Amino acid sequence: MSGVAYEIVDVFTDRPFAGNPLAVVYGATDLAADQMHTLAREFNLAETVFVLPPTDPAATYRARIFTPEVELPFAGHPSVGAAVTSMRRGLFPPGEIVQECGAGLLPITVTEAGTATVTGGKPELGPPLDHEPLLSLAGLTPDDYAGDETAVPRSAGCGLDWVFLPVRREALAGVRIDVPAAERAGITELVVFSWSAPAAEAHSRVFSPGTAVQEDPATGSAALGLGLWLVASGRLPASGTSSYRVHQGIEIRRPSLLECTVTASDGVATLATVAGHVVPIAKGEITIPPFIG
Prior knowledge:
The protein is 17% helix and 39% strand. The chain has helices spanning 33-43, 76-88, 131-137, 179-185, 220-232, and strands at 3-11, 20-26, 48-52, 61-66, 71-72, 95-101, 104-110, 115-119, 124-125, 154-157, 161-166, 190-196, 201-207, 215-216, 240-248, 256-265, 268-287. Strand 3 and strand 4 form a beta hairpin.
């Protein structure tokens, strides 16, 4: 059988073997969705992204993003990784491009230095949630909670939603997800984080209970959603554009840094961006799996 080209890159880090590993696949135009999914399961990373010709003339390329379990409409580290890797392969020069994906057409700025800034999709903010069940399924106690009347757990996202649980910085190392409890509560995407107002930065752990990769070392979609949460909770200004950064992956020895902005008007976030470096790790060719569907 013939094969397709791939590269393995580390995203949201400026050094190898940190950040979030990603498989970027090229030449897969003729593959069906089940063949792409089979390849994603073979790589067994948090996500595998397939760079394809666009179907919209306004787009530079189309990205299909798969976890070992499902296809996603959007994810941050595949979007950053695909953009930088494609630029390095000569598909387009550094500058402004447009990624077509399940979340729509997303602007991306790519630099020759190997960074990309992704603008998220439509902001979505969920209603407040009870913090006690979330603390319990995270293996934490009420003393670990860092919320208040306005800073409450809720879902948020710009193309992919996450549930956000604010805790004390010291509590992060002790998080132990009770997967059956999370499944019973319907929690499939959880961000447990601490916030430092003086530094305008968060330390976070991001979990997908019950999946092949249950803790993610760097999650662009979660960093985007955090900006929405910070505005809604009054942790960032209600109007204008604010910068913040997210440290992630420390507890699992994949330290990552995500540089973010959120733009708000009258207390509502209207736009969020996430940026980071991409480091090449490996490249090769992988066999095309047989058609299954």
